[in-house]
Amino acid sequence: MTINFKTDESYREPFNFYNSAASIRRFPFPFKSDEFNYTTNLEPHVPGDGIFENLLDIDEHYIGEMQERRAMLRDNPDQHFVSLPQSIPSQWEFLELIMESYSQDFPEYFSLKRDGPRWTWINRILGIEDTFTFGDVRSLREEPLKYIGMQAQGDWILLEERDGNLFWSAGLATSRAGYSLKFNIGMNFTEFHGPVPLAHESGVFDRAMKFLIRLKPGHPFRRTNWNLTVHPRHDISVEATPRWANDWSHVTRENVGEIVHLRIEVQPLFRLPRTNAIAFPVRTYFATLQEIATNRDWARRLHRVVKTCPQDIVDYKGFTRFQHLVVDYLAVFDDSN
Ligand code: HEM
Fold it and tell me: In the chain, is it the N or the C terminus that has fewer CB atoms within a 10 Å radius of its CB?
């Protein structure tokens, strides 16, 4: 599989991001009905079309996203990588998961050679070749999650299971919508979902927790999450608020199609077989409303979803102030108007 990687993208001012026609066609448009409310929406993470062709997708934005991640870690290392000492064994298992899946699914770009515990990893896209001893952090010079997460598209969270609950033990995340890694480390499943409206009352999180405790190695599941955000800005975390808080004020009737993005998070869940930890990737995909509107069915459905989304959810997601502009822009694609 040959990917035409873009080399000139920018996810901060001055923004330079767009999807090729092929990238729009494989965009993971998530809505299966015209109405939205929180559900567990978990499904088996099995191979499928488009972005689900491989276990862990990489695409034309790989180089730009890795450059953005490096810049963020250089500027604010503590905000984007956290780990508790007990997460090191699951970090190694996580590194194994990525190296195996990338080298099997994208052999022209990645390769992994094993000689007992001596492993050689080659990433031809970023020009990396390293030999290290599996299990020995000094031989890698970085914690395993950080080493491989700097070469893997998406954010990465590790959770350890204890007393029938899941605890946040490590994370490398530069595309955070809202939450803080430093604040969440050590929290359990119910605690780190605390700010989400409506879902606690309806029992969504209790059901999801019970499901996750039963998750088996080799049988990953996935869910998707969505939002509307302004610009293709990856980092809209709590800590970065001064940089993005005013983005909504840039949206006008004239530019709404170009600068408002449907932001999709594809979230597979993997049980790691030796440590019993759960690896939770959050892979973010952006498409402008204009790009979405190249598919009339998507535009019509998105119009209905955004128009009727419960107010608490709109406020939590943070698009209250430009919701009406999005609804007006998409209305022309919806015959029922
Ligand atoms: C086990 C790995 C998971 C982790 C680490 C995780 C983490 C998070 C975090 C940090 C947030 C943002 C909360 C905030 O505003 O501070 C969030 C939001 C949310 N999570 Fe999870 N989550 C996980 C799994 C799940 C599962 C299995 C469900 C299924 C119900 C779920 C449902 C949601 C929902 C509905 C939101 C609100 C998102 C939105 O509307 O923008 N999460 N999650």
Answer: N
Which pair of structure tokens corresponds to residue 149? 């997460």
Q: Tell which residue, 43, 62, 66, has the closest CA to residue 2.
A: 62
* Dist CA 188 CA 74 (whole Å): 29
Distance (Å, whole) CA 266 – CA 33: 18
32 is a domain residue: yes
Kindly report the number of other CB atoms within 10 A of residue 173's CB atom. 25
Structural domain for 74, as ranges: 21-331
290 Cα–ligand 1 center, Å: 28
Is 296 designated active site? Answer: no
Tokens of residue 138, six digits: 């000094």
Pairing relationship of beta strands 155-162 and 177-178 according to DSSP bridges: unpaired
SS3 159: strand
Measured from the CB, is residue 208 less than 6 Å from ligand 1?
Answer: yes
Give the total number of structural domains in the chain. Answer: 1
Strands 177-178 and 236-237: parallel
Does some domain include residue 136? yes
Residue in 69, 176, 222, 223 annotated catalytic: 223
Q: Is the CB of 11 under 6 A from ligand 1?
A: no
Looking at the predicted structure, is the pLDDT value of residue 199 above 70? yes
pLDDT tens digits, 90-111: 999 999 999 999 999 999 999 9
**Per-residue confidence at 337, pLDDT binned at 50, 70, 90?**
low
Q: Would you call 250 helix, strand, or coil by DSSP?
A: helix
Our answer on whether the CB atom of 38 is closer than 6 Å to any ligand 1 atom is yes
Phi-psi region of 310 (alpha: psi -120 to 50; beta: other; left: phi over 0): beta
Look up residue 330 and give its amino acid. Answer: L
Sign of CA dihedral 171, 42, 106, 294: negative
> Is residue 7 assigned to a domain?
no
Q: Using an 8 Å Cβ cutoff, are 283 and 153 in contact? A: yes
Could you tell me if residue 12 is inside a domain? no
pTM: 0.97
